[in-house]
Specification:
Helix 10 links the parallel strand 8 and strand 9. Strands 2, 3, 4, 5, 6, 7, 8 and 9 form an 8-stranded parallel beta sheet that branches. Helices cover about 45% and strands about 10% of the residues. The chain is of the alpha/beta class and about 375 residues long. The longest helix is centred in the first third of the chain and has 18 residues. The structure holds S-adenosyl-L-homocysteine (SAH) and iron/sulfur cluster (SF4). The site of S-adenosyl-L-homocysteine has 18 residues, from loops. S-adenosyl-L-homocysteine binds next to loops.
Length: about 375
């Protein structure tokens, strides 16, 4: 039986996708959306296989120097009880992940750049390396830092870094951040460049469904990832938080379900555009649909971040409202996710770091390793 001659199939037959082609993919609904996601899933199998890799997520601290207009952790939100995990709590979470053969960790936090914070992270990285025999992939998601800091953390054992560009449209970036040097689009782009230069597997991503965001913006986001040769991506729906300035625009937002469906299309279109990268099924997907992360997996994602943060802190790490699983401990998250992933016919890559196949080490560091 021949393939349906649909708009989506016509685009999927092309060797090079233009911005307009991506807009067509992102606009797909119903059967057309299904065709796109099936193609993405097929490309995933061919390029990175059917394994889903776990990255144990440690939400290290909710203390943040920044004031992003969308985020519940912004420093002006006085309703948040601020915390920083104790070293032993971090190391316990690491031991748990190591024993459960997760093989990768993510340390995420509000953005702090004080010397004390920088040195604390370095010390933790060194201890993690010792505990885990330097066998785990370690992703940092600690915001914008100086090139020296990034290098120091890389030397101490971090292998990947996640810094979402949030939106690749500089005008929209200005609308969702305060207009000052601490929230500068160009600096964020420059930091992504430094990550590459300091030999991290470089991760980025955007929020989908922001106020003022258009489908063209989203298509440009995908091209931005390609042009910046990003190795791993985490994209999630924007979810409003009542204690943030962007909340005032809630009436102009597309419905949550729309944002969810568009994120699935973003994941699928990105898998078509960059078949060999790692794509995360973000937790925010599950805030909208209980099976959100599994749906992201079968639309082309291959990474999941089970939460390892002690339960007592989870309710204080609310980037957005309705965050799922805040009353669970690490073991419950693991068992629940495991069941769900097996149910959709995927395997979990236990004991494998699942590095991005797209990543090519910098020549200089490759030489040093020889
Ligand atoms: N402070 C670091 C890491 C923590 S924030 C940083 O900003 O890079 C991690 C991510 O949470 C952000 O990149 C952003 O994309 C996402 N986020 C924040 N507020 C959100 C919201 N209201 N809805 C959805 N995602 C949000
Ligand atoms: Fe801080 Fe990150 Fe939230 Fe911005 S998005 S306020 S940097 S935690």
């Amino acid at each position: 039986m021949g393939r349906l001659k649909t708009m989506v199939n016509t685009v999927l037959d092309k060797a090079i996708l233009t911005k307009n082609d991506l807009v067509t993919l992102l606009n797909a609904e119903g059967t057309e959306a299904l065709l796109l996601r099936q193609r993405a899933e097929q490309l995933k199998m061919q390029n990175v296989g059917n394994k889903v890799y776990f990255r144990g997520l440690i939400e290290y601290s909710n203390i943040c120097a920044k004031n992003c207009y969308y985020c519940g952790l912004r420093c002006a939100n006085t309703a948040v009880v601020r915390y920083q995990m104790r070293d032993e709590e971090v190391l316990d979470a690491v031991r748990y992940a190591y024993n459960e053969r997760y093989a990768s960790l993510v340390i995420q936090s509000g953005e702090i750049s004080t010397p004390a914070f920088v040195d604390k992270i370095t010390a933790l990285l060194l201890q993690i390396g010792e505990i885990t025999n330097h066998s785990m992939g370690i992703t940092l998601s600690l915001g914008e830092q100086s090139k020296e800091t990034l290098q120091q953390w890389r030397n101490a054992g971090a292998t990947r870094y996640l810094l979402r560009i949030e939106t690749s449209n500089p005008d929209l970036y200005c609308k969702i951040h305060p207009n000052n040097a601490l929230h500068d689009f160009e600096n964020r782009v420059k930091t992504l460049q430094w990550l590459r230069e300091t030999d991290y597997q470089t991760g980025s991503g955007v929020m989908v469904g922001l106020p003022f965001q258009t489908i063209e913006d989203l298509a440009n986001d995908l091209l931005f990832f390609k042009n910046h040769d990003i190795d791993m991506i985490g994209m999630g729906p924007y979810i409003e938080h009542s204690q943030t300035p962007l909340y005032q625009y809630r009436d102009m937002l597309m419905p949550l379900l729309w944002r969810f469906e568009k994120t699935l299309n973003m994941i699928a279109a990105l898998r078509v555009l960059m078949p060999d990268i790692n794509i995360a099924a973000s937790t925010a997907m599950q805030a909208i649909d209980p099976a959100g992360r599994e749906k992201a997996i079968i639309a082309g994602a291959n990474v999941i971040m089970p939460n390892l943060t002690p339960q007592k802190y989870r309710g204080e790490y609310l980037l957005y409202e309705n965050k799922p699983c805040i009353d669970e401990e690490a073991d419950q998250c693991k068992r629940c996710l495991e069941r769900r992933i097996l149910m959709i016919g995927h395997q979990i890559g236990y004991g494998e770091t699942g590095d991005s196949k797209h990543y090519v080490p910098e020549v200089s560091s490759a030489l040093i390793q020889v």
